[in-house]
Amino acid sequence: MESLGLELNFKVFRLLGAWNSSGSQNGTTRFLYFLYTIIVLMLIFIYLMLLIVDTFFQKDITTLVGNLNISCVVTACYFKILLLVIKHKEIIDMMKILELNDCKPNNEIERDILHRYKDKAQFTSKMFLIFSAITVTVLVIAPFTYNGGLEKRNLLFRVRGSDDEKNLFIYVITKLHDLFLVGFGMPLNASFDTLIAGLMVLTCGQYELLYDRLRHATTYSKICNCVRHHQYILKFSKCIEDLFGTLVFVQCFMSMVIVCCLIYIMVLMKSVVDRFESACFLSVMLVQLLLYCWNGNEVFSMSQGVAASTLNNEEWSNLSIRSKKALLLMSIRSYNTEQLKASSFLNLSLTTYMMILKASYSMFTLLQRVSSD
């Protein structure tokens, strides 16, 4: 997996208790790591429950919307860890598909193709992590720049009981929990999102590798290798959809709610700092959603290009009948390839991206009308 350009993602997962790769370590080490994972899950779950309870007691629409916003983020973080822990073996098996001989480069040109997409996956992970880290830094620092500054006990997120300024113990515990959530939630969410985006990028790399092989396939055996390679790519895409599709759908729905909440908060807030804070958070959510939809759209576009590559074979006129039949069948199958889906019915495409943004704005309009009444 580390040779595929996703090593940064899995290093973050290991650090945060979401990916135990200590297969060669003793039972005690594995047990301690398991306890570490349980503690992380419990802390996130407790914080989520506090947010939900506080939301039910809220009468102020702004605070309620803010709590709903953060609850969606924390919920997504919790289920992302659960998926990585529960589907650990399935994810490893999926990654092994790219290590099969048909998916490996055979010459320098093919190595350059895969290396380019590997670099793209790495660049995406690093840039989104940096972008998320900058945003979280703004969110942490911003509360201390207004509303009493350092003299007032400011919290990043408000939970039930945290507004009791007379109780120092409650404040300290809540603040530590606050920082834990930021320190764990940000890199985990960013790494998980770029993991899926990176897998899609690697899928595109395999398609381009297939294009190159199809153009130079002059014998029936080479064409059979291309057919087998195409089947592995389709299998890999199907694994991505099966493993992450449901969670991506939940993430898309929550992103729609979060974008709506952030726009609503930006409209209501009078402070420039508050608006800037919300704008930073909003930009991260939009980029996060774009990572899924853009790369899903790219995978579909690349899959449709297989048909053109089969017809661009340099030796088409000299190929045998069975070779031409094999290429035509591959071409037909590529036309029938469906887009990557979230939960089997939501296509990951730029059209879906625009649809989610429109739905967010519609929710914002409805929320604004309800609050004005």
UniProtKB/TrEMBL annotation:
GO terms for molecular function: odorant binding; olfactory receptor activity. It comes from the Eukaryota. It is found in: Cell membrane. GO terms for cellular component: plasma membrane. It is a multi-pass membrane protein. Keywords: Cell membrane, Membrane, Olfaction, Receptor, Sensory transduction, Transducer, Transmembrane, Transmembrane helix. The chain crosses the membrane at residues 31-52, 64-86, 127-146, 243-267, 345-367. GO terms for biological process: signal transduction. InterPro entries: 7tm6_olfct_rcpt. Belongs to the insect chemoreceptor superfamily. Heteromeric odorant receptor channel (TC 1.A.69) family. This is Odorant receptor. It comes from Sirex noctilio. The lineage of its organism: Eukaryota, Metazoa, Ecdysozoa, Arthropoda, Hexapoda.
